[in-house]
Design brief:
This protein is α/β, with parallel strands linked by helices. It is built from ten helices and eight strands. The structure holds uridine-5'-diphosphate and magnesium ion. Magnesium ion binds near residues 109, 212 and 218.
Length: about 325
């Protein structure tokens, strides 16, 4: 048996009714309560559930908290990633390893109310293949964040043609959806976008965003949100490339007209100064070309990242040891 910390070669675990996948990054303060609340809500609909916490390279006591919860109740399982890979990667790991016929993903900070789990579950039993948690009211969040997230959703919807409005990562996925999602090969995963792209019969459930439990701020600063927005846009849309194409064509047409005019003036001997026009044109064109190159470079970078075929995450440890979902065989993807 090779060195097998993540239990890649252990026999497949059996299926269960409901998996609850929780990505957690430095959530020791709230994780214990969250797991308890989630377990209580899940127990209302089935006893056959598992709670799978993915520790996304936390530097606090998140993993010991998972260990304690696992020792108290074997239905609590855990994966520890080898470093912080980001929420979407943590979600990938959790979903990949989950065993449920239905899989609910929710945050560790109780902003996705566990009390809604029965409602999600019932919507699934009624036939929905995806149940989306939709944020009803964000007025409790700071204004700048609200504005940013509205911009993010609007841009994402416009660019991709998929509806993201106020959607969140609080979702229930049927096993069919999970399997389809797992078959998407890209490395730069953006959970919400990928789920929206998949299609399937979806139902929406509205919830109020509670204030973050356990104190501390969101793990997403403005910069990280902006990076995420760009990564989502460039992963899901080639619209920016079309836009620069269109703009270049427009610039070129204007250039041809102005050039023809200048030439005519030269021929008829009316050519004068015109220094300002030249400078402005020069600056505009230079700026535009650099911007276009920048956008193309971003796509190039994205393609470069994808061609490396690096795994989305690396599992360092699991609870129980050798834990893995029903979907074999490569764990590191
Ligand atoms: N999270 C994660 N990895 C990260 C950042 C966040 O697993 O690099 C988890 C975090 O522990 C929480 C969820 O993702 O369970 C949402 O994070 P947060 O509450 O900071 O984001 P927001 O509520 O602002 O969207
Ligand atoms: Mg949060």
């Amino acid at each position: 048996m090779p060195n097998d910390p993540a239990g890649l070669f252990a026999p497949a675990a059996s299926v269960c009714e409901l998996s609850l996948v929780i990505p957690a990054f430095n959530e020791a303060g709230v994780l214990g309560d969250a797991v308890a609340a989630i377990a209580r809500s899940a127990a209302e609909v089935t006893a056959d559930y598992e709670i799978l916490v993915v520790d996304d390279g936390s530097s606090d006591a998140t993993w010991p908290t998972v260990t304690a919860a696992h020792e108290a109740d074997a239905r609590v399982c855990g994966l520890r990633l080898s470093r912080n890979f980001g929420k979407d990667a943590a979600l990938s790991a959790g979903i990949k390893h989950s065993r449920g016929r239905a899989v609910v993903v929710l945050d560790a900070d109780l902003q996705h109310p566990p009390a809604l789990i029965p409602e999600l579950y019932r919507a699934w039993r009624r036939g929905a293949e995806i149940v989306n948690g939709i944020k009803r009211d964000r007025t409790k969040e700071p204004f700048i964040r609200r504005a940013l997230s509205r911009m993010f959703h609007l841009a994402a919807s416009r660019l991709t043609g998929l509806d993201f409005n106020n959607s969140s990562d609080f979702k229930l996925l049927d096993r069919r959806v999970v399997n389809a999602w797992l078959a998407l090969p890209e490395r730069r995963s953006f959970f919400r976008g990928m789920v929206a792209w998949l299609g399937f019969r979806a139902e929406d459930i509205y919830f109020d965003v509670a204030p973050r439990a356990g104190g501390g701020g969101s793990k997403y600063g403005v910069w990280r949100l902006a990076r995420m927005a760009w990564s989502a846009a460039s992963s899901y849309s080639v619209a920016p490339l079309h836009i620069i194409h269109f703009l270049s064509a427009t610039f070129l047409s204007v250039g041809v007209v102005l050039g023809a005019r200048a030439f005519y003036q030269k021929l008829t001997g009316q050519a004068i100064g015109g220094f300002t026009t030249v400078i402005i044109l020069e600056l505009l064109m230079g700026g535009f070309i650099l911007l276009s190159l920048g956008i193309i470079a971003e796509y190039l970078a994205a393609i470069y990242e994808e061609t490396k075929c690096r795994p989305r995450y690396i599992v360092a440890e699991s609870l129980p040891a050798g834990y893995r979902g029903t979907i074999a065989p490569e764990t590191h993807s």
